[in-house]
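Please decode residue identities from the backbone states below.
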């Protein structure tokens, strides 16, 4: 008969473990079983078994991946922190005697997500889950982008850049991450990553899901209004108007009173999307990319968004008075 009683070591770990309310909340609100089953479904489709399942439980590696996003840790830092912090071990379900995945194993899991583009699929799966539990009601969405600085500087000769996929935009050398956010809950429903020199509005179509009732965006997305009218006439356009440039050397043509008032009203709603970027950059302490190349950067941004959505889920559950 199996003895489920805790060992003396486990008892002392529980007593000495600091109270990490955030990780406790995440353990309670995230649907781990459903996510684990989803991962297993993808692993069954693997033809090459050697490149499939990692040597540790898939949900353990996913939890470690989330810790990296929430605390802005490199692979080596993550390995050390799990060994050093009892609260991390408790979140991961590891006892003091359990072996911790090393930095190479953590890196390989990230490549596993990257090679199969699982993050983008998971964002879509979570979007359906949030809709099913009544959080996302699809009343209105906001599209916006944030700049992500590359971990290298641009070379005078673009062909010699250490990150050949990054580009120089008006905010610097790096990439642009676009999100489609539910206006009411601030949960992100879709993402897109491009080099920084790609104009924001060119990512609009990539993040539109088609079930939005109203779409909000700032004046940088004004050129996408025509695309919206042609392909998504059912979506109410709440994109800010942009002042028209006159002849070279002349001033911008001011907006009329109606359009100026329109912009002022939309600006109040559109500003809600800044909460997503503030959480990623201020709370998760994300300041600069660790990886190079569009594929790896895309995986990183999508991972940050998944981690943000879980962080936001905890807040929404508390707001609704649901015990977590």
């Amino acid at each position: 008969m199996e003895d489920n009683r805790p060992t003396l070591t486990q008892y002392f770990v529980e007593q000495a473990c600091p109270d990490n309310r955030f990780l406790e909340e995440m353990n309670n609100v995230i649907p781990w079983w459903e996510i684990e089953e989803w991962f297993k479904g993808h692993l069954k489709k693997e033809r090459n078994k050697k490149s499939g399942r990692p040597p540790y439980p898939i949900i353990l590696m996913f939890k470690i991946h989330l810790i990296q996003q929430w605390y802005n840790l490199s692979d080596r830092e993550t390995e050390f922190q799990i060994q050093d912090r009892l609260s991390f071990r408790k979140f991961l379900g590891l006892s003091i005697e359990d072996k911790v995945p090393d930095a190479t194993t953590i890196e390989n899991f990230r490549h596993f997500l990257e090679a199969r583009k699982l993050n983008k699929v998971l964002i879509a799966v979570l979007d359906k889950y949030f809709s099913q539990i009544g959080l996302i009601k699809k009343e209105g969405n906001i599209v916006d982008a944030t700049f992500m600085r590359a971990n290298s500087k641009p070379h005078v000769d673009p062909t010699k850049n250490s990150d050949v996929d990054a580009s120089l935009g008006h905010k610097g050398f790096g990439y642009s991450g676009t999100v489609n956010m539910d206006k009411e809950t601030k949960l992100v429903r879709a993402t897109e990553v491009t080099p920084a020199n790609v104009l924001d509005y060119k990512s609009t179509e990539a993040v539109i899901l088609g079930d939005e009732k109203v779409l909000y965006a700032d004046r940088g997305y004004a050129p996408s209004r025509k695309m919206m009218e042609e392909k998504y006439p059912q979506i109410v356009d709440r994109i800010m108007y942009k002042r028209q440039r006159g002849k070279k050397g002349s001033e911008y043509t001011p907006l009329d009173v109606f359009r100026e008032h329109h912009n002022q009203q939309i600006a109040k709603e559109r500003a809600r999307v800044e909460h997503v970027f503030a959480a990623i950059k201020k709370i998760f302490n994300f300041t600069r990319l660790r990886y190079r190349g569009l594929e790896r950067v895309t995986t990183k941004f999508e991972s940050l968004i998944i981690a943000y959505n879980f962080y936001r889920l905890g807040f929404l559950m508390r707001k609704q008075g649901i015990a977590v």
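Observation: The mean pLDDT is 87.
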